[in-house]
Design brief:
The chain is an alpha/beta fold and about 525 residues long. The protein is built from 21 helices and 12 strands. Helix 20 links the parallel strand 11 and strand 12. The chain is globular and about 75 Å long.
């Protein structure tokens, strides 16, 4: 092989060398059951046709590349938002490695999470002993203030009872009797990461508000003027929660963010390892029962949590990942109404700057067609912003979106002349999106990192907005909520538009008549 210590080749060049090319060719010939290249090309071209699209959309028993993750990922995301809390996943080590790597690759931060390390014997006899030993080890080794338990497929299939297991573990001395161990059943074979988020945040609140699984008196609500805020599963949690805190500070609002993981996913490099950093305090989580109202920025991340909170006497308000002018207007007006606080002039100026920026760039976005995929709330927020910009969100797809969500997206389309030729696709996957991009092409695709394969396959330029974003760095540090966040999204979209124009006008004396310095 050509690699040596004196001349270390980057992998971009290394695997193009003749030795590697021969090795890869041999592997393909001997092990990959190759077919006639002409037949492969014929099938590939057929898979771009309306005929194939019809067959693709008719499938029922197969999912190809779903645009979602599984429930426990959302539960882990919730757990690290509380002070000195470690997520404990009752299942196999391999599952937990997936959740940790997914979060670490997106946020570029270590993601702490432990497993009960269930193996084949636990699948047969149950995972009680794994829970007893796992809680004891976690408590003694990592010194958390709270352990938040969730489940994977294995534990759910065999029917492990978390409430009973945790009580037994406490009786065995794994953790003190009064120690906080909230839990949520998060079967990975149904729902998605947003369902897991919902189950987990509800589990934490239920633990503190409703008597800690029967071991303490239920809290009696004594209403105050605070507002609870729930961000939902959000790949921009670092930038977004800081922006929300800034807005609340400018308005003078007394608030509690439930599940504040903005610090643990953005720790500094200063010589100190922080397994835990920031987070909602356990006292704040308990006292949140007394708040005047709770606001969720993502309705479909809190479908069970908000009714639970409403049943405790609070007003609840839900948004759909508000992006842009109207979305931020509605958010701020709700905060103002509930708190009685005026919207300050500084925020009004920020609104005016966003409106000015939209006016400056409208000619480049107006009429452009976009395909969007991702979580239900994110898709709604982005589609609303695109309509606001005069663009057409032609295809909006959410694998974890249901018919109720689809009806809401259609209502959004019907509210704007730019939505008349747009369609919504609940429960569909990225292989469906591929057919749409070939048969009903658009100008740009908006979604997470996995869209780069669609970009390569269909030639549709990808704008990376969503979770996860693995192949670009630090997007999560910028907000997409608020007027400042709307400005960030606008700039992200415009940069891709201009990059695409430049790429399409770059050949000297052939296409460079529009290779302009000024756009």
């Amino acid at each position: 092989m050509p690699q040596n210590a004196d001349n270390v080749l980057d992998h971009f060049e290394l695997f193009r060398g003749p030795e590697y090319q021969q090795m890869l060719a041999n592997k393909k010939k001997m092990f990959e059951n190759p077919r006639d290249p002409a037949e492969v090309e014929r099938i590939r071209e057929w898979a771009k046709t309306p005929e194939y699209k019809e067959k693709n959309f008719a499938r029922e028993a197969l999912t190809v590349n779903p645009a979602k993750a599984c429930q426990p990922l959302g539960a882990v995301f919730v757990a690290v938002g509380f002070e000195h809390t470690i997520p404990f996943v009752h299942g196999s080590q391999g599952c937990v490695a997936y959740y940790r790597s997914h979060l670490s690759r997106h946020f570029k931060e270590p993601s702490s999470c432990v497993s009960s390390s269930m193996t084949e014997d636990a699948a047969v006899f149950g995972g009680l002993n794994n829970m007893i030993d796992g809680l004891a080890n976690t408590y003694s080794m990592y010194k958390p203030k709270m352990i938040a338990v969730s489940t994977t497929c294995m534990a759910e299939v065999i029917g492990d009872d978390l409430n009973a297991f945790i009580k037994t573990a406490k009786e065995k001395g794994s953790v003190p009797q009064e120690y906080d161990v909230p839990f949520a059943h998060t079967p990975a074979f149904v729902g998605s990461h947003v369902t897991g988020y919902d189950n987990a945040i509800k589990g934490v609140l239920e633990h503190f508000w409703d008597g800690k699984a029967g071991t303490a008196p239920k809290l009696v609500r004594e209403p105050n003027e605070k507002i609870n805020f729930i961000g939902g599963f959000d790949g921009y949690t670092v930038g977004n929660l800081r922006e929300v805190k800034r807005i609340f500070g400018l308005m003078g609002v007394d608030y509690t963010i439930l599940g504040d993981n903005s610090e643990v996913f953005d720790t500094p490099t200063d010589g100190e390892f922080r397994m835990y950093d920031g987070g909602t305090t356990l006292e704040e989580a308990a006292n949140a029962v007394h708040a005047k109202a709770t606001i969720s920025m993502q309705e479909y991340c809190t479908e069970k949590t908000l009714p639970f909170i409403a049943n405790h006497g609070q007003e609840v308000v839900a948004f759909n990942h508000p992006v842009g002018v109207k979305g931020t207007d509605e958010f701020l007006m709700a905060i103002s109404r509930i708190s009685g606080k005026e919207i300050p002039e500084e925020l009004a100026k920020e609104r005016g700057r966003l409106v000015d920026a939209i006016a400056d760039s409208n000619a480049h976005i107006h009429g452009k067609k976009f395909a969007i995929y991702g979580d239900p709330d994110l898709c709604l927020g982005l589609a609303a912003f695109l309509l606001e910009l005069g663009a057409e969100p032609t295809h909006v797809l959410a694998t974890n979106g249901n018919q109720k969500w689809a009806d809401k997206v259609q209502k959004l389309f019907d509210s704007s002349p730019f939505g008349q030729n747009c369609n919504v696709y609940p429960g569909r996957d990225l292989w469906h999106m591929r057919s749409l991009l070939f048969t009903e092409p658009v100008d740009f695709l908006i979604g997470n990192t996995y869209g780069k394969y669609l970009e390569r396959d269909t030639g549709t330029p990808l704008i990376r907005i969503g979770f996860p974003v693995f192949d670009r760095h630090h997007h999560h540090r910028r907000p997409v909520w608020g007027y400042q966040g709307g400005m960030n999204v606008l700039i992200t979209i415009l940069d891709k538009i201009f990059d695409t124009i430049d790429q399409n006008t770059i050949v000297p004396a052939k296409t460079d008549y529009s290779f302009d310095i000024i756009r």
